Amino acid sequence: MAPTLHPFLRQLGLRLPILQAPMAGVSSPPMAAAVTAAGGLGALGLGAMDAGKARAAIHAFRAACDGPLNVNLFVHRPARADAERETRWLERMAPELERFGARPPQALREIYTTFLDAPDMLDMLVEEKPAVASFHFGLPRADQVRALHNAGIVLLATATTLDEARAIRDAGLDAIVAQGYEAGGHRGMFDPDAVDSRLGTLVLTRMLAQSIDLPVIAAGGIMDGAGIAAVLAAGAQAAQLGTAFVATDESLADAGYRERLAGAAAHHTIMTRAISGRPARSLASDFTRWAADVPDADVPDYPVAYDAGKTLHAAAKAAGHTGFGAHWAGQGAPLARAMPTGQLMQALEHELDRALS
Q: Considering the entire predicted model, what is its pTM?
């Protein structure tokens, strides 16, 4: 039995209440195109790209598919420079780097520009007019919201609490991605230093569905059609799946990432701040073990800490060791399936129909 789609989804031209999470460094134009072609909403994570690379990725999607696309932007606060803390961080990491024949960098950089300080990215989006733009770590400015809405772009943002969802509503955005604590990758918390209420996907979805008059898209731990049906029953209008797509043929995940996702590490995901500077859920790895006893206060701000993390990963990988990658995955990781994206979408649709019948 096919689900009854909310008008919000029909407006986007979707046939299924399935969104592919916009995973920076993992999602690809072929993956997004396959999801959209199957009736869902494909997505690209643009947060690690400049405007030129982002435009090229959008064009690559459009060369393969003429349906809707969600592009995701990071709206984190700029990193607070703290030379003393950053120096101590590099000193702490130095033995690991030296183990792989590398030296710590002289200094750390803010490797990703927040959308709040990227007028060229805003101009590109207004020109390209993707169907959807979504935001992680906070909200765009009011003038950015107006410009994107004037271009006909539907706007989403991630919430991990009711207060964040209310802020999304009050900012005039069109829908909320309710990110449960089970989700892989970075927590969408507006303030990474706030106490995390750690609400699960079903609880958060139910709270927002009852309290906020906007479409809710549930995210976190959803891996199959039964999971999609569960969040729809809890009041979501759609489900967003990320980890479910990491093992697909079109994923940009490397061999080490895929090997860990298919192994014992998938059963032991860890929430850590040490890899990037913000709380994020990762597969258990040498990086998470190294970071297990590191106080959050010692970690430099995002994305400065990510510069160090990527340096360590590159050194380890060059030495044939894959245990220091950013292997983001949610608690549903053991349910991941390796197959083409289009085949996974067919399976999800079949499972959802079966769960609803």
A: 0.97
